[in-house]
Each structure stands twice: as structure tokens, then as C-alpha cells.
Design a protein that fits this description.
alpha+beta, seven-stranded antiparallel beta sheet, globular
């Protein structure tokens, strides 16, 4: 089985605590700030902690309709969150799963948003470079939209 890893790193002027708090509200914020990508995100089971299962319904600019994921880890003290997509057409028929690790690292008065995406392939076939680049761009755009939302709504975070 092959694996492919993509790394995203974005410097932010916002403190890690604020960025992580907003990220934990992803299911509510993402469809507001990037509805073309995230049509809806709903909790199917659980309370948001480890073991929670959520369903992403993607918007019109995404070549997939849905993906189901399970929360693997949440560590508030280290501002980290991990989850794994295990079902859906976002697995492209060639992936067993997509594991995502998010960590927000304090840096001066701001922070660094780090997002690692691990594509766990069923066999030797891997996602195309074009697909990997497009997904990375979506996450970068969504992060920037999150920052703008937090700046416009400081009372929420």
C-alpha cells in the first residue's frame, strides 16, 4: 500500500488559542466562509470528541459529493486535532482512508497553522498531482477565509 503526504503551513497573526477555538467550530464556520466547497457538515454520532462521526457534503466546485470522517484525537492543551475520512466518493475509489492532522503552534503573538494530510492508498495507485494541488489550495483558501471570519467576529472566539 502506498501513502502520499501533503503538508500545509500558514503563519497567522492570531494567537494559537483563538485559531484552534475557531477550527473546533469548523462544521459551523466552513459552510459560511466557503460554501462552494463545504455545502454542509453534520454530526452523525458523538459530541465532537474522539469517536465522533461527521458527514461532509461538498459544494459545487468540488468533484466529490460527500465524505464521512471520524475524530481520532483532540488535544486542547497542544492545539491539535486529528480525523480520518473512511467513507465517501472523496476517497476516489483508490484510497482506504485520508488521515488529517491539524496543529496550531504558538509563534510570538501569532501562530502557525500546520495541516498534514496522509492519503492511504488501497494499492499502488495514488491521487494525481493535480488533485493533491487542488486540495491543498482549498485548505489554504478555507484557512484564510476562517481568519477573515474570526477577525470580523472577535466576540465568538
Amino acid at each position: 500500500m502506498a501513502t502520499v503526504t501533503t503538508e500545509i503551513e500558514i503563519a497567522s497573526s492570531f494567537p494559537a488559542e483563538k485559531v484552534f477555538k475557531a477550527f473546533k467550530d469548523f462544521e459551523n464556520v466552513a459552510p459560511k466562509v466557503n460554501p462552494a466547497v463545504f455545502k454542509s457538515i453534520e454530526t452523525l454520532e458523538g459530541n465532537g470528541g474522539v469517536g465522533t462521526v461527521k458527514l461532509f457534503t461538498f459544494g459545487e466546485v468540488v468533484p466529490f459529493t460527500h465524505g464521512k470522517y471520524k475524530v481520532d484525537a483532540v488535544d486542547e492543551s497542544s492545539f491539535s486535532y486529528s480525523y480520518t475520512f473512511f467513507e465517501g466518493d472523496n476517497l476516489m475509489g483508490i484510497l482506504d482512508s485520508i488521515t488529517q492532522h491539524v496543529k496550531v503552534i504558538p509563534s510570538g503573538e501569532g501562530s502557525i497553522y500546520k495541516h498534514t494530510i496522509i492519503y492511504n492508498c488501497k494499492g499502488d495507485e495514488k491521487p494525481s498531482e493535480e488533485a493533491l494541488k487542488a486540495e491543498k489550495e482549498v485548505y489554504e483558501q478555507t484557512y484564510k477565509a476562517f481568519e477573515a471570519y474570526v477577525a470580523a467576529n472577535p466576540q465568538l472566539y
